[in-house]
Structure formats: structure tokens, C-alpha cells
Please model this.
Amino acid sequence: MKREFAVIGLGRFGGSICKELSEEGMEVLAIDTEEDKVNEYKNIASHAVIADATDEKVLKELGIRNIDHVIVAIGDNIQASILTTLMLKELGINKITVKAQNDYHEKVLKKIGADQVVHPERDMGRRIAHSIISNNILDHLELSDDHSIVEVKAGKKMIGQTLVDLDIRANYGCNVVAIKQEQNNEINVSPMATETIDSGDILIVIGADKDISRFEKYLV
Ligand code: ATP
Ligand code: ATP
Ligand code: CA
Model:
């Protein structure tokens, strides 16, 4: 099933979304004010047009109303991003995803009804920071302001021990929700307390950030 998307703003972020959606076989309308940006996406997106998204008449002419999900990836021009989002909302777009530049921008976007607000630079910075703290941290996903899920390589100290031996829940207040086993290439969901950790195993751990932070330091 083909779904229709529009990406407004073809910088690195919007451009990358546009490429990936197109490669996945989705219909994408790509929009930017800059001619060279639009030319870059002519052969990638289903349609690429030069247009100013802050112009309501232009949005209507493009038939944006019929598009299911619009991604607003206008960067530095916060005013244009807010105005565009507001008009898309007024036009009744089903789903609007917007890239925010900062926390104030995010607050405004949420107030005017953006369905999803993303902070790619901030979030990627945070994820990378966690993998820098410990080489064992493979990924970090924020659940809320103070809870996360992390993917960690089993540290040397863990190999051959069971979850009971390590007593991660009592010692660090974190829960191991799954273990990816390298040996049989399987994911053990909700592992038993008697599960032994082998070399190469990857643990998926959920917990409060302060607890995960102590656990990360133990892994170093
Ligand atoms: P990135 O970091 O993703 O490369 P950025 O956050 O630095 O991008 P900008 O380069 O400021 O963001 O903007 C992204 C794109 O949005 C640019 O190509 C710009 O031309 C386009 N853009 C800005 N304003 C509008 C507008 N009103 N309508 C359509 N496109 C716009
Ligand atoms: P981001 O998308 O992460 O916000 P960016 O990729 O658009 O950033 P810039 O805004 O050009 O990149 O640069 C990021 C920061 O690096 C800016 O705060 C800028 O002041 C700083 N910076 C740029 N050049 C230098 C330099 N030579 N020495 C120190 N700081 C620099
Ligand atoms: Ca940027």
C-alpha cells in the first residue's frame, strides 16, 4: 500500500527523510524554497516543487489537503516552521511531524497541535554521549524525561553469571527485559532469573536514568 507524504524543507534532515521514504516505495511530495535543493530531489521524490510553505495559497494549490502525513523540516527559520505547521493544522492534515530547533520551539509546536515533534540533533547527541561514556552502550532510547531503555554489550564482569548472581534489579534498580544471544542469534524476551550471560550477549535494559547511569559506569 502506498501512503502519501509531503516533506517541507530539504536540508540534511528533511532530505534524508525524503530519500528513505522514497526508497521504501512511498509517494513523497518534496517542497523547498531553494531551486537547487528541489533539483537534487527531482529524481528521488515522486514530485519535487519549489514553493514557500508559509504561503497558504501555495499550500492549497499543491493539494496538500489530500496528503496524509506532512513532515515540516524547516530548520533555522523558526517563524516559518511555526506558521507552516499552523496552516497545515488549519487545513486539516491528519498527521504533522515537525523538527524543533529548541525547547521553546517545541512548546509552541505542541500548543498549535503538531502531532509529533522531533529533535534530531539533541537526541542524537544524547545517544552518542551514552555510547561515549561506555563502549558497551550500543543504543539509548529515551522513554520520558527520566526513564530510558539502553542496549548494552555484556561486560566482562557479567560473562558466565546469571541475572540472580548479578542481581541487577536490586543493585541498580534496572530491569533486563530481553537478551539478544549471539550464539544462537535469538532474542530471549523476558529472560528467567537463572539465565546465564554469555560472551557477545546484548542486554536490553529499562530503568530510571539515574539507575541506568550507575549501571553504565559499572559496565566501563
Ligand atoms: P539540516 O540541519 O536538516 O540540514 P537545518 O536545520 O540547518 O537543516 P535549514 O537549512 O535552515 O535547516 O532549512 C532546511 C530547508 O528548509 C532548507 O533547504 C530551506 O531552504 C528550507 N526552507 C526554509 N524555509 C522554507 C519555507 N518557507 N518553505 C519551504 N522550504 C523552506
Ligand atoms: P547543529 O545542526 O548541530 O545545530 P550545525 O551542523 O548547523 O549545528 P554550526 O551551527 O555551523 O553547525 O556549528 C555548530 C557550532 O559550532 C556553533 O555554535 C558554532 O559557533 C561552533 N563553531 C563553528 N566553527 C567553530 C570553530 N572554528 N571553533 C569553535 N566553534 C565553532
Ligand atoms: Ca542544522
